[in-house]
Amino acid sequence: MKLLVTGGAGFIGSNFVRYMVNKYPDYNIVNLDLLTYAGNLENLKDIENKPNYKFVRGDIADRDFVQGLFQEEKFDFVINFAAESHVDRSITDPGIFVQTNIQGTLALLDAAKSFDVKKYLQVSTDEVYGTLGETGYFTEETPLAANSPYSASKAGADLLVRAYHETFGLPVNITRCSNNYGPYHFPEKLIPLMIINALNDKELPVYGDGLNIRDWLYVEDHCQAIDLVLHKGRDGEVYNVGGNNERTNIDIVKTILKQLGKPESLIKYVKDRPGHDRRYAIDATKLRTELGWQPKHNFDTGIKETIDWYLNNREWWENIISGEYQEYFKSQYGDRLGVE
Ligand code: NAD
Ligand code: TDX
Fold first, then answer.
1. Cβ(81) – ligand 1 distance below 6 Å
2. Dist CA 135 CA 170 (whole Å)
3. Which pLDDT does position 338 carry in this prediction?
4. Ligand 1 mean position, distance from CA 338 (Å)
């Protein structure tokens, strides 16, 4: 069995590659990644020499390159993680989100169709459903109502995946997951950014009133869900993945400060994210009942393990935040925090 995993040098992709390389020694796993600012081969140091693993650098939106790779490798399964993934960046620079998330998905779908892959799995997000009020859950039937350029590009990709199933009979699945957390999470996202700022005694920028709610899922539980859908998902179906673990942002930030023994005076409420979705919550009944998915981690232990990981892997994040990240931080937070 030969698998193409795209975006395997990013946060979730690298956790998935490690999970699959170790779980299926008989599978050959090819990781295709452009190594953008978010891609990092350090994430895969421990498995880079495994005989069932190979890395290829390239752009999923480069149609000729993608067709050539599929011709050469004859993939059975394709799992597409590659994406521009950060909502704040999509607000300042939407074009690259359309290019990678929509054009890139289209190039992969065309190659999957040309070379008869057995399954194309699109890793999508709960953000395509938009936002919830105080009650209710997203189900697979909730209409798409994306609110950010990021989620709009993911929703566009999802519709292309659906269309390739309906029109060309391509065997596809789409998974829509809630917010992940865990090791190798890039420090532009809430949890790692807050851990690292707290460790450096820097202010923690909380958007708006801090009461927006996300449903947090430990990354390994997401990997397990994708493994299940890949092998057992019914063709053409969408599966929601979520942790039933709703927390306000301020609650997350206070939990991190408490565990690190840092003062709440580091919290700074800053200008809100435009179009900021208020609440996400996932109904994952279909995945649980149809495929028997059961998340293994609860938030209390998962967040503790995650914080410990950042404490024990300082070099990993110090390398990241010493580079171009400095410019990013200044452009996103300079005005909000009043720092140069
Ligand atoms: P990430 O930003 O950490 O990683 C993205 C990876 O894709 C990087 O390695 C990057 O180099 C690569 N990439 C970007 N553009 C590429 C291109 N044109 N060609 C090839 N590779 C390219 O993202 P993540 O948080 O690991 O998210 C992975 C996927 O899961 C995304 O599709 C995202 O939409 C989805 N998702 C993420 C979350 C979350 O909480 N992080 C939740 C639900 C769904
Ligand atoms: O500095 C911050 N301050 C803050 O208050 C940052 C970076 C975030 N936030 C808030 C915004 C959100 O309400 O925290 C919440 C989480 O923000 P992000 O970590 O940026 O994640 P989110 O926007 O919810 O999107 C994530 O989950 C769904 C991923 O980045 C997406 O790729 C995924 O699809």
1. yes
2. 36
3. 83
4. 30
Q: How far apart are CA 1 and CA 26, in angstroms?
A: 7
Q: What is the pLDDT of residues 159-185, one digit of tens each?
A: 999 999 999 999 999 999 999 999 999
Q: Rg (Cα) of the chain, in Å, rounded?
A: 19
For the annotated catalytic residues, the residue numbers are: 126-127, 150
| Cα 185 from chain centre | 9
By three-state DSSP, how is residue 205 classified? strand
Q: Residue 169 falls within a domain, yes or no? A: yes
- What Cα–Cα distance (Å) separates residue 321 from each residue in 39, 132, 186? 14, 33, 10
The predicted-structure confidence for 7-50, as pLDDT tens digits, reads as follows 999 999 999 999 999 999 999 999 999 999 999 999 999 999 99
Residue 317 to residues 174, 187, 325, Cα–Cα distance (Å): 31, 8, 11
CB of 148 closer than 6 A to ligand 2? no
Q: Is the CB of 101 under 6 A from ligand 2?
A: no
| Strand spans (E) along 161-212 | 172-177, 179-181, 204-207
| Domain containing residue 60 | 2-181+218-241
Q: How many domains does the chain have?
A: 1
Between CA 92 and CA 262 the distance in angstroms is 32
Residue 179: both structure tokens together: 């917010």
- Average pLDDT estimate for 245-254: 98
User: What pTM was estimated for this model as a whole?
Assistant: 0.98
CATH value at residue 68: 3.40.50.720
